[in-house]
Write a structure and sequence with these properties.
Elements: H1 9-70, H2 73-78, E1 96-99, E2 102-105
Antiparallel strand pairs: 1-2
Length: 106
């Protein structure tokens, strides 16, 4: 008895197409994992920097509040400020309304 083998050429092409698709998918998967890890590292660095900046801002706010509370009239005089001889107050005229920087009489 003789055995005959039938080979179909389209299956040969299909094998190479599927192999190339599998390889391309593997390359894209590895690239995506690499980018994800890099993004996680950058995010951690940004969070550390944000934490440092937030604490620095808190220290600056505390220094501002403490210096603001330490200013009184004697310190103002020492810094060169002088008392005003005549107080001038600005009153808003009730007949004028302001809308978008344009005065409109009522």
């Amino acid at each position: 008895m003789q055995t005959k083998t039938i080979t179909l050429p389209q299956y040969k092409h299909m094998f190479w197409i599927l192999s190339a698709t599998a390889f391309l998918s593997l390359v894209v998967y590895v690239y995506a994992i690499n980018q994800t890890v890099r993004n996680i590292i950058v995010r951690q660095q940004i969070q550390a920097e944000l934490s440092t900046l937030t604490s620095h801002i808190g220290e600056m706010e505390f220094a501002y509040i403490s210096s603001q509370n330490s200013i009184d009239i004697t310190k103002a005089h020492q810094m060169g400020f002088k008392d005003v001889a005549t107080n001038i107050y600005i009153n808003r005229d009730a007949s004028v309304a302001f809308a978008d920087g344009i005065s409109i009489p009522r």
